[in-house]
Amino acid sequence: MWDDSTKKQLDESINNNSQKKQITIRDNYLKIEHFEFNFLKKIGVTVPFFKEECTVIMEAQFGELLAHVHITTKSKDYLNIFNKLIMWSKSFPSS
Q1: Handedness of CA 80, 91, 70, 35 (dihedral sign)
Q2: Which pLDDT tens digit goes with each residue over 27-79?
Q3: Domain coverage including residue 20
C-alpha cells in the first residue's frame, strides 16, 4: 500500500499535473521528473480511436512496490510515435 506522503507527491507532481514532464527511459529504468522506476515489464502501447495520441503502459517497481505507469504522448504524428514505441518495447524480454 502506498503511504499518504508518497501518494500526495505522485499526485501533485505527476498524476494531477497536466504540464509536460521530463521523462528518461533507458534499458530497464524509467525516470519521470525525480521519481525513479525500475524493472520495467508488461509493456504495452495503445492508440485510442479519434485521438491524436498514443500511450505506453508498463509495470515497474517503485521503491518496494509495483506501479502501473501510463505515459501519454499527444501529437499529430502519433502513428510514428506508436511505431517507435513498438520497436522500443520489442527490446525488452518477455516476462
Answers
A1: negative
A2: 788 999 999 999 988 777 788 877 888 888 889 999 888 899 988 888 777 77
A3: 4-89
Predicted confidence (pLDDT) at residue 80 exceeds the cutoff of 70: yes
For the four alpha carbons of 24, 9, 67 and 43, in that order, the dihedral sign comes to: negative
Is 94 a domain residue? no
Q: Tell me if 69 sits within 8 A of 87, measured CB to CB.
A: no
Q: What is the pLDDT of residue 60?
A: 92
Q: pLDDT at residue 95 above 60?
A: no
Per the document, the length of the chain is 95
- Count CB-CB contacts under 10 A for residue 23: 12
Q: How far is CA 61 from CA 35, 42, 85, in A?
A: 11, 12, 20
Answer yes or no: is 95 within a domain. Answer: no
DSSP state of 14: I
